[in-house]
Amino acid sequence: MNMNLTLKIWRQKNASDKGSMVDYKVSDISPDMSFLEMLDVLNEQLINNNEEPVAFDHDCREGICGMCSLYINGEAHGPDRGVTTCQLHMRMFKDGDTITIEPFRATAFPVVKDLIVDRSSFDRIQHAGGFISVNTSGNTIDANAIPVNKHDADTAFEAATCIGCGACVASCKNSSAMLFVGAKVSQFALLPQGQVEATDRVLNMVKQMDEEGFGNCTNTGACEVECPKGISLENIARMNREYLAASLKG
Amino acid sequence: MSGILNSSIGRKFAMALSALFLMVFLLQHFAINLLSVFSADAFNDVSHFMGTFWVIQYVMQPVLIFGVIFHFVMGFVLEIKNKKARTISYAKNNGAANSSWMSRNMIYSGLAILAFICLHFYDFWLPEINTKYIQGDMTGLLANGEYRYFEELQHKFVDIWRVALYCIAFVFLALHLLHGFNSAFQSAGANNKYTKGLKGFGKAYAIIIPLGFIFIALFHHFNH
Fold first, then answer.
1. Residue A111 has pLDDT above 80, yes or no
2. Are residues A30 and A71 in the same domain?
3. Cβ of A26 under 8 Å from any chain B Cβ?
4. Phi, psi angle pair for A21, to nearest 5°
5. What is the pLDDT of residue B3?
6. Is B186 in contact with A244 (Cβ distance < 8 A)?
7. What are the residue ranges spanned by the domains of chain B?
8. Could you tell me how many CB contacts below 8 A there are between chain A and chain B?
9. Helical pair A198-211 and A120-127, crossing angle rounded to 10 deg
């Protein structure tokens, strides 16, 4: 059965505008729609009424790019588990529901417009050390030439599935980015190719994370629950070990 | 190594170390208090040893006081820093959907424990310091020649309101430990395939120790 919904949406003209919650009504929403498609319907309605459409981030709409965000009814990416907002379906809601939609909130994620936040702080953390330096000028060694323990390979791969959407920061009561940074540190720390720059990597990435203004992790575990890719808290513990060992060395 | 306390992970690690130290202290405090249930003489002997042995008094006691002060000061510092990391709150936030009440309210359970520590110092530590280091009586004896420790302990738990306050504080201690025990190990990097048993042990510790303290307080209230 199609649904009629009330939406409470954060509207903010630009980064310097104060912003406020605005109520909208949408009707005849199919339970098979994705959440973003429901917002598309709202925006069509707004455009037809010569009103400013709601700005929100999206790209692949397949749950793999990490572009969509949104804090829906008090949870990052909404009430479903293991999905991004684009993969959240309207069947998770009921006819007559009121849905509160806000941007991800963190000092390090300033609002650009409406529901769009600037997550380039994550890019700067990656630039600080989230890479390995490999000669790619034709002399690249085949990755499979170096044997890797299966458990380590699997764990590194799981860490590498982080799409950098920022749900961990948005869900954390402290706006901590440690799950993201922990995943990015772990994916290299577990592999032989990551060992050469391991010390500098973790020190530089954590330094950048702190400079960006993210909070301190208090291990509530909210990030792990809300992460659309199921990144584990073990990655934060691994980063802590890597960081403490690197601090002793450096 | 320099400046490690200036980093988020360094501060967390220091917080975890102080927490682990305090949890070990809590265990030995509990063990000694439990003695009072079984034997007044044994409790008196151990209390006198703890109250007069110079290593305990002049080395361990200052370390403990530093540990307590460091833990709550760092707790406030982290809380203030974390508040700055989100200056605009959510209009609707469903924290219960992804985390425990204990984990989200460590500052409040911590404040309740801090208030209790003040009461506990007023009840036991300050009179002890007064007797030993201001009045200069290191004998630990009453006028009748018996040790005073068990007598003082029972006397404190006559008042039902004090017992009630202690019991409420121990409930907050349990709530604090239910998150804090495993959080300390996580912060110290101990969360991997070798530490699965820690979570169960942490929950048991967080419930058994405060319950034990409640039992001791009630025991002396009803048996004085």
1. yes
2. yes
3. no
4. -85, 135
5. 67
6. no
7. 4-84+103-222
8. 137
9. 150
Lowest mean pLDDT among A143-147, A238-242, B65-69, B137-141: A143-147
DSSP state of A198: H
- Helices B8-38 and B196-222 meet at what angle, rounded to 10? 40
Chain A positions in Cβ-Cβ contact with residue B188 (cut-off 8 Å): 240
| Pairing of the two strands A116-117 and A71-72 | unpaired
Nearest CB to B104: which of A220, A226, A244?
A220
Ramachandran sector of residue A164 (left: φ over 0; alpha: ψ -120 to 50; beta: rest)? left
Are B189 and A241 within 8 A, CB to CB? yes
Fold of domain B4-84+103-222: 3 helical TM bundles of succinate and fumarate reductases (1.20.1300)
For residues B43-65, give the mean pLDDT: 96
Please indicate if any CB of chain B lies within 8 Å of the CB of A88.
Answer: no
What is the value of pTM for the model shown? 0.94
Band (B1; pLDDT cuts 50, 70, 90): very low
List B residues 96-115 in contact with A (Cβ-Cβ < 8 A). 97-100, 103-104, 106
User: Of the candidates A102, A233, A240, which has its C-beta nearest B91's C-beta?
Assistant: A102
Domain that holds residue A131: 119-249
Min CA distance, B58 vs chain A (Å)? 30
Nearest-by-CA chain B residue for A248: B1
pLDDT (tens digit, 9 = 90+) per residue, A29-73?
Answer: 999 999 999 999 999 999 999 999 999 999 999 999 999 999 999
Which residues from chain B sit within 8 angstroms of residue A175, using beta carbons?
82, 85-86
Question: Is A7 within 8 Å of chain B by CB?
Answer: no
Q: Which residue in A has a C-alpha nearest to residue B89's C-alpha?
A: A105
Q: Looking at chain A from residue 94 to 153, which residues have their Cβ under 8 Å from any Cβ of chain B? A: 100, 102, 105-108
Q: What is the ipTM of this complex?
A: 0.94
Regarding whether A142 and A61 lie in a shared domain, the answer is no
Binding-face residues of B in 181-200 toward A, CB within 8 A: 182-183, 186-192
Give the model confidence (pLDDT) of A198-216 as tens digits.
999 999 999 999 999 999 9
Residue for token pair 């700067």: A124
For the residues B170-186, what does the mean pLDDT come to? 97
CA distances (Å), origin A202, targets A72, A175, A185: 33, 19, 6
